[in-house]
Amino acid sequence: MRTLILTLTMTALAATAGAQTIGQRERNQQQRIGQGVRSGSLTPAETVRLEREEARNKAKVRRDRVDGGGMTAAERARAQNRLDRTSRDIARMKHNDRGR
Question: Where are the domains of the chain?
Answer without folding.
Answer: 22-94
